[in-house]
Amino acid sequence: MIKVIPRYIINFVVLVLVQVLILNNIQLGGFINPYVYILFILILPFETPKWLLLVLGFLLGFAIDSFTNTLGMHSSACVFMAFLRPFVLKMISPRDGYESETLPMVKFYGLGWFLRYAVILVFTHHLFLFYAEVFRFSDFFLTFFRVILSSIFSLLIIFISQYFYRSSTRRK
Amino acid sequence: MRSLFDFLLRIHFLVLFILMEVLSIILLVNNNNFQQAALVNFSRQISGRYYTRAANLKQYFSLAEQNRKLAEENTQLLNALELKYKTDRTITQIINDTIYNKQYTYILAQIINNSVNNRHNYLTLNKGYLQGIKPEMAVISQDGVIGIVKGVSKNYSTVLSMLNLDYKISAKIKKNQYFGSLSWDGDDYRTVILNEIPLHADILVGDSIVTSGYSSIYPEGIMIGTILDFEEKGGSFYEIRVSLSADFKKLYHVYIVGNIMREERLSLEEKLEE
């Protein structure tokens, strides 16, 4: 357990930097803002204590917020997503539960499982985030459209990253 | 205590989540102008709606109080108005009447009270004996004759309006100098009656009626009105209805006319009667 900590710290830093330096500058058609940094919460080990999930989620969002000058917006969305993660994991758990020494990733539980897992969490995160950004319910459907498009794009990048991960770990 | 602890431990995840979410939203609202404004607007809308309803309801109970306050404020404002002060706007000018060598003084005054609805109408002016007003002075406006000063106080005077059953002046038809006595019949505030014009006088509707100058009060030739219609009455005289040229309902400024030679004339005329 202890030995994974440095890896997640690197994960954290890399994901925040990628998000802030690259992805935040991508705006496709004014609708699509991919938010990939939440991958960090997605791939935390199953055994992570629940309280730590929330704290990490808050820290992650806070880091993004401090770069984008939107204090509280990403934090609240990430905390919300971290809160939902245990329930989602329980909901879609395989029949014999999660094995120890595995991570919630494609290479351990397959594409279908990860797809369900990621879609639910990414979508809720984006939903929360975009409505927190707009902060009103007029233009409800326009915002919803943005949520769906951005979710699709974020998921796309997250899936691609999963395959990078796989190959890199295999090489080790 | 133990069970409370157990309970807290059981729900620590939810409690922590709520705490952190609240913290995030506080950060969000406090640090982002748009979200802050939106929240403030929203809460103001809600509170504003209820405050309006409450206020609408409450104001019925305080109507009497509000009325009293408004009346008080009105009086206060009226007292503060410039009109309250006796700014010495007295305009006095001397007109030399070269034909008769008479002298009249004109004093400008404002009407501060007026009525046309009664049978005995009076006006109140904002000039009194301090400004040189004396009883029996004539009051005229730009348009025509208004009345006679009746009572005078330090700063105010009352005027017997032409629209008063006690009022009677000597008037004449401008074009042929036939004179008669003019009075009000108490009916319409726009018309007065001119009597004692002989039947052989040549008159037409629209002829001008002016003051005769036979009394010691009015200068000669002040406009009174025009003939509206006339009829024969009592065999030898016309009864002429005169449309007043001055509109008594929209009077504001009037001139008070003083006859400087009045005393002299009256004392001379008194000797005749002795």
The CATH topology of chain A is given as: Arp2/3 complex 21 kDa subunit ARPC3
The H/E string of chain B reads HHHHEEEEEEEEEEEEEH
What is the CATH architecture assignment of the domain at 92-273 in chain B? Beta Barrel
Number of strands of chain A: 0
The CATH class name of chain A reads Mainly Alpha
Query: What's the CATH superfamily of the domain at 92-273 in chain B, by name?
Result: Rod shape-determining protein MreC, domain 1
Poorly predicted runs of chain B are none
Distance linking N and C termini of chain A: 19 Å
**Oligomeric assembly:** heterodimer
Name its key features.
heterodimer; A: 172 residues; mainly alpha; Arp2/3 complex 21 kDa subunit ARPC3; 71% helix; disordered C terminus; B: 274 residues; alpha+beta; Thrombin, subunit H; six-stranded antiparallel β-barrel; six-stranded antiparallel barrel; 5 helices
Walk me through the structure:
The complex is a heterodimer of chains A (172) and B (274). Chain A is built from six helices and no strands. With 172 residues, chain A is mainly α. Residues 167-172 of chain A have low confidence and may be disordered. By secondary structure, chain B is α+β, with helices and mostly antiparallel strands. Chain B has a domain at 92-273: Thrombin, subunit H (Beta Barrel). In chain B, strand 1 and strand 2 form a beta hairpin. The N and C termini of chain B lie far apart (123 Å). The mean pLDDT of chain B is 81. The interface between A and B is medium-sized, with 21 and 20 residues.
